Amino acid sequence: MLRRLMRVSVVEGRDIAEVRRRHLAALAGELHARGLTCRFAGPGESVLSVHGAGAGADRRLMVVATPVGTGWSYLWPGGMADVTTAADVAVSICIALGVRP
Fold it and tell me: Based on CB atoms within 10 Å of each CB, which residue in 24, 66, 78, 80 is the most buried?
């Protein structure tokens, strides 16, 4: 069992934390392009905090990137999508925050 867990902790020779941060950085770029503010939070900057001012109220949500099956997915309140669809995820997050994409 331990051997199996050790194999899962490395993705393509990289530490999971590094891969996670890379995926979150890609999403942050898409969100910034749509006028949202993002910052890394949590242990090892493992969470992306997204802030948007829309509909007269400040709104925030948190996004994580996690290994799922053989790939990676973004998870946020009310949504989940493959990391290869970062542009579409950014649009979904804008909508969730009440901000025009």
Answer: 24
